[in-house]
Specification:
The complex is a heterodimer of chains A (1001) and B (99).
Chain A: E1 14-23, E2 26-32, H1 36-42, E3 47-50, E4 57-59, E5 71-75, E6 81-86, E7 96-99, H2 114-117, H3 126-130, H4 137-149, E8 164-176, H5 180-191, E9 196-199, H6 223-236, E10 240-243, E11 246-252, E12 256-262, E13 277-289, E14 293-295, E15 308-310, H7 311-321, E16 328-333, H8 339-347, E17 351-356, H9 364-371, E18 375-378, E19 380-386, E20 393-399, E21 405-413, E22 416-420, E23 423-425, H10 428-432, E24 437-440, E25 445-448, E26 455-457, H11 467-484, E27 522-524, E28 529-530, H12 531-539, H13 545-552, H14 565-576, H15 580-583, H16 597-601, H17 618-623, E29 627-631, E30 634-639, H18 647-660, E31 663-666, E32 671-676, H19 680-687, E33 700-706, E34 712-722, E35 725-730, H20 735-749, E36 756-759, E37 764-770, H21 774-779, E38 782-783, E39 797-802, E40 805-810, E41 819-825, H22 829-840, E42 846-847, H23 850-859, H24 894-897, E43 908-915, E44 927-928, E45 942-950, E46 955-963, E47 972-977, E48 980-987
Parallel strand pairs in A: 1-7, 8-9, 8-13, 9-10, 13-26, 15-22, 16-17, 16-22, 17-18, 31-42
Antiparallel strand pairs in A: 1-2, 3-4, 5-6, 5-7, 11-12, 12-13, 14-23, 19-20, 20-21, 24-25, 27-28, 29-30, 31-37, 32-35, 32-36, 33-34, 34-35, 37-41, 38-39, 39-40, 40-41, 43-46, 43-48, 44-45, 45-46, 47-48
Chain B: E1 3-6, E2 10-13, E3 18-22, H1 36-44, E4 52-58, E5 66-72, E6 78-83, H2 91-94
Antiparallel strand pairs in B: 1-2, 3-4, 4-5, 5-6
The chains are: A alpha+beta (1001), B mainly beta (99).
Amino acid sequence: MSQGLRTVSGGRINRARPVRFTFDGRELSGLEGDTLASALLANGVHLVGRSFKYHRPRGVLTAGPEEPNALVAIRRDAARVTPNLRATEVELYEGLEAHSQNRWPSLGFDTGAINNLLAPFIPAGFYYKTFMWPRRAWQWLYEPRIRAATGLGLAPEHPDPDSYSNRFAHCDVLVVGAGPAGLAAAQSAAARGARVILCDEQPELGGSLLGEADPGASLGENGRDWLADTIRGLLANPRVTVLTRTTAFGYFPHNLIGLEQRLSDHLAQPDCRQPRERQWQVRARQVVLATGAIERPLVFPGNDRPGVMLAGAVRTYLNRYGVLAGRRAVLITTHDEAYRSALDLKRAGATVTIVDARNGASGELAETARREGLAVHTATTVIGTRGRLRVRSIRIQRLDAHGQARGATERIDCDLVLMSGGYTPSVHLFSQSRGKLAWSEGLHAFLPAESPEKVRCAGACRGVFSAAAARGDGESAGARAARDAGLTVDIVIGEPQPAQSSGTAAAGDLPQPGGAPPAKAFVDWQNDVTSRDLLLAAREGFRSIEHVKRYTTTGMATDQGKTSNLNALAIVARQLGKSIPEVGLTTFRMPYTPVTFGSFAGYTRGELFDPIRTTPIHDWAARQGAVFEDVGLWKRARYFPRNGESMHAAVARECQAVRSGCGLFDASTLGKIEVVGKDAVTFMNRLYVNGWTNLAVGRCRYGILLRDDGFIYDDGVVARIAEDRFHVTTTTGGAARVLAMMEDYLQTEWTDLSVWLTSTSEQWSVIALQGPRARQVLEALVQEVDLSAAALPHMGAATGRICGIPMRLFRVSFTGELGFEINVPADHGLAVWEAIHAAGEPHGITPYGTETMHVLRAEKGFVIVGQDTDGTVTPDDAGLTWAIGKQKPDFVGKRALERPAMHSPERKQLVGLLTAQPHVVLEEGAQIVLDARTTPPTRPIGHVTSSYYSATLGRSIALALVRAGRSRMGQTLYVPMPGEDLAVQVTSPVFYDPKGSRLNA
Amino acid sequence: MLLINCPYCGERPELEFVHGGQAHIARPGDPAECSDQQWAEYLYRRDNIKGLHGERWRHTHGCGRFFNALRDTTSDVFLATYKVGEQPPTQAQLKGVKA
């Protein structure tokens, strides 16, 4: 079929540039400048989709982003399939491949349409009421079936190969919408020196003017010149950023607006280096919303057949795209403005009959229509339509003096029905700004009122509908926005224009015979909600519009009810006997139109998803074949398998090496904070539980940090480097929050203290050398430090040099062996590591990872904060009371520890567990119960926090938090697992060298 | 995303800041003197105000300083931000600031 419905001239398409495309595999041709919808209509294709629930045939309803029916999938290749795009917004390109959705086997013959015959039996709430039980069947039977039978397009199955970009921007005035009001506002603000961003969702500036045969003519005085000059001026002004194909999708607090710019979807051959979309976050001093209005459909039986369209959309297709959507048209309307569509169609050669539900139509446009010979039926309603895949006829009925459908009926044959119930101002973004809306009885619409944001509206979105008035309104709004943005304004500012009625009748449904609710009179096209569904909800007791919305799903589709909300509201209000503002409006939420996930992700995918932190020794470990694990953002070597060893074998070997010779461990990820100042010791005393006054320079202490609620927050070794200087270490994951907590107390509670805090986590490489031979290995490398047990005992600290590099050396051990932690500047970490490794080779030095570190510390009963503690554990629970400075009057958490509940003998306490079967390793997190083989529910008395196989002991070991654990030594408890209850014996948490003789060697 | 006026750095986007809970809750000078009830109030009791709320913020990814703010929780408008140790502005001083 050729484009038989294309007019001979006019419009904004390029008639010299045909564009080929396919729809469901059928080859068709359109013109450059077409949308997919206009090209389909030019080919006489009205049927473009099947409805969500009833699989009813549906056609193009609108010419813009409000389209509920014409949703298509656009496919470039297997990975580039975008479902649920509105055909009214898809720009045509050579080779475009479009597919209809929610139909099987084909669009023309869809077996799912059986639902349409069953429609009387599946009203609102049907699923909730019917698929009640068996309850379990919902998950595996009902929901999957219902989801398969209903729904929209399918998601692509491959990862998205396209790239997406993000950008931040600031401006004095952001103008949303480039129709007459938006253009005027941008021009007016820019003329006053404002930095302006002007965005519009369409590919061209002009907004509603693009649907006019002569866009400038409707703008009033010198309209044509003004339009051309304004657009040229804005594009040439370096202080103005004009963004087309850009949707303002969200209004966020403090004038932050999300913009979605589509960069390549309209191109036949996008450059693969070009991002597909760019998401802007614009912080605007002032915002002008010139978002226009959306035409309201009418609600009457069979108003959803393909060929039934909004009157303004038909006019846009004619004037902008040169497409005659039908040759025998009927216009159904309740206001004068819609007559323009009938007049334009008539002039383009179609026959048009006008059905006006109002008692009379005496406006200028109505008179023109009569003068041009159009049949005008006033006081007439529509009671039905016919036609399976395209509307074929409608039936009308006269209304009596009371507005009741009682008169004669008549059938009118047609291939196109235009409808218009007036305009609904697009207040979506304004409402998202938490702006209040006010009901206007005259306009029968909600209009913007007060907003906490710095925003003003202009043009049709505040009820100023005519293009000339909107231009004046925009000029005023732009000037005021510039003034409020802080620019000196010396030009006279015009007044905002008054809102004006277009002679609109009430929203809601058209009268039907006997006052009966009409059948299949659709309110929400996309979710298949009819006026009957809404009445049913009201009858069943739903009073709040928010509840009616959720029950019937009206306004909850991807179009968010752009065409349906006000009609639904009017129908519910009438049924409840309330006024529309009494019933209230549902909340508008972002996004205005659907936004791709890719644009939200932007650059943060793959390697850029999260920063990766590596230590200076990372590459060395990688070369040794280390297996890494993620600890926060850090990559830590977990174990170093040799010759294809399993983790179990590697850890056993590494443990053995540390216990019998020496091991080397990269502890650089430890958090480190330098606490300096004359009050440093006071600060440490107030913060940590320990006493610090008596800690001599050159000594270390195991520090515990509580929150003020008394629970363990962090721990780590603290070394006193000088009288006024502490080297504080924290857990790897806790470094940032500990520093934040320190800063909090220092800046807000103890402002009297003279202390400086510096994060040094990344400044120091920390190399742990552990094992009975550690001293021998180190001796050859260290200068200025006596390593002997007498000079540097356990918990000693010294400064000196290693391999000539300045070093802080701590004799500390997280393994229970003689051990050292060597801190060197990070730049020298790798060199020192390699030197120690070389020096250790004669002693069998073995690099080990975090897994071995965990086993070794568990053998010694050393806790890991966050693993063996969970934010509800006190020092006493963890068996660490010994660390608390007894003489201190106060420290963070001290007061809370004195609460009686903190001393309850029933608290969970840290204990060791030994399984009856030595080779069974318990699951970490497993629950612990008193008796075997009890039937649930059983009260657990604790849980396993750490569990490993200890090669040193030749059996499994575990740490656990158990209620009154320390009073249960020797008792047998049970860990219920699938299949059996594992018997465990409660022991001390220290499994190895309880006297610590190895530590002090 | 809020726009927050750090008293040290000026206006910065919210993602540079961390919220620090209700402002002007001083840690008792001598906790040992507090009853359990008083200590629990200090630890856990916070206002949940609809309207003007004093709250702490920290410019974590900036100067690192804590400061206080008066924010209207219904509109998210900040009426004032001020340094630690300073008193919140009085009603008279706030007059003319659009809430």
